Amino acid sequence: MEIPAVYYDGQTARRYPISLVIEQGVVSLYGPDFERHERVIDIEVPEHFGAGARVLRFADGAYCEVADHAALNTALAASGYRAGALERWQRSGSIAIAALVGVVVISVLAYYVGLPAAADVVARKVPMPFVASLSRGALAALDGSSLNASTLDAERRAALVRGYSALKLGDNQAVPRIEFRSSPALGANAFALPDGTVVLLDELVAIAGSDDEIYAVLAHEQGHVHYRHSLRRLLQGSVVATAMTAWLGDVSSMLVLLPTVLLETRYSRRFETEADDYAAGQLRARGLSPGLLADALEHLTAQRHGGPDIPDYLSSHPATAERIKNLRAAAE
Ligand SMILES: [Zn+2]
User: Fold this and answer.
1) Residue 150 counted as domain residue
2) Which of these three, 53, 80, 107, is where a domain ends?
3) Of 81, 136, 163, 210, which cross-links 76 as Cys (Cβ 3.0–4.6 Å)?
4) What is the pLDDT of residues 181-235, one digit of tens each?
């Protein structure tokens, strides 16, 4: 997405009309005879609630005015800007309250305006501390029902955590966490909580051909986190309840719904494709082949045909053959 903006070099009064693009945590400015790229974390992005242009400041004194707040916020939210935002939420109670009220207003509007599109917008505005407490609560609820303790030994778990952490998969590096569990009922499965924590089941570890295959599956799950798929489904399912919950600051009613959403992750084909594409990009950027995810899917298919008829990773992931084909093509 290109956002129109005006750039000033900080030395002269010259005005450069430019296009601003934020991708993978990098802000790029493009003018007719000008180009500049900086990491988002190296730029000062002030909070802004008024109507005036928002000013992004560079370390060397240059700055950039952006009038389209909505587009800028969307682009920032999709980049690595969240960690910084989290710190501010925690510091400022009033900002958090304003955000929660905003969620209520937006949620109510969404109810009337068209759910899937609105849920997408709202999901990006749910404050991170709320997402985090929702995630913790959902895991606790699942621990009391579908999930058992992992039987992997400590050394094996530590090795998987080391390998996974080293790859830095996903957006939110503040939580590169794996929760190890087992579940005969769920079978070979992994899923991500909305805060980026991944729940990895022993059954999936057992059938994966290599640790890299496991990481490829976790990269796919991080794709669902990146696009906030579970939050979007949750919001679509309960816009009003969600708004009230956010407003009252009580996560209990959403907690009833989230475990269901996580377990019967019948995501749409579009969501799966988005998560696969995200995983392929992440794997390639780390020198791994997107084919690893195809390998994992094939191992899951083989296990499914030979094993008992239990709900597994694949039953929740439609059109597997087509996904394998696309991932193999991406690996070439
Ligand atoms: Zn998926």
Assistant:
1) yes
2) 80
3) 81
4) 999 888 888 988 888 899 999 999 999 999 999 999 999 999 999 998 888 877 7
User: Sorting pLDDT into bands at 50, 70 and 90, what band is 318?
Assistant: low
Q: Is residue 116 in some structural domain?
A: no
Q: Are residues 143 and 72 in the same domain?
A: no
Distance 22 CA to ligand 1 centre (A): 25
Clarify whether residues 314 and 189 are in a common domain: yes
Q: Are residues 66 and 155 in the same domain?
A: no
The residue among 80, 106, 136 that closes a domain is 80
CATH (domain of 51): 2.30.29.30
- Kindly give the distance from the C-alpha atom of residue 140 to the centroid of ligand 1, in angstroms, as a whole number: 22
- Reduce the secondary structure of the chain to three states and give it as a string: CCEEEEEECCCCCCCEEEEEEEECCEEEEEECCEEEEEEHHHCECCCCCCCCCEEEECCCCCEEEECCHHHHHHHHHHCCCHHHHHHHHHHCHHHHHHHHHHHHHHHHHHHHHCHHHHHHHHHHHCCHHHHHHHHHHHHHHHHCCCCEECCCCHHHHHHHHHHHHHHCCCCCCCCCCEEEEECCCCCCCEEECCCCCEEEEHHHHHHCCCHHHHHHHHHHHHHHHHCCHHHHHHHHHCHHHHHHHHHHCCCHHHHHHHHHHHHCCCCCHHHHHHHHHHHHHHHHHCCCCCHHHHHHHHHHHHHHHHCCCCCCCCCCCCCHHHHHHHHHHHHC
Tell how far the Cα of 102 is from the centroid of ligand 1, in angstroms. Answer: 30
- The range of the structural domain enclosing residue 22 comes to 3-80
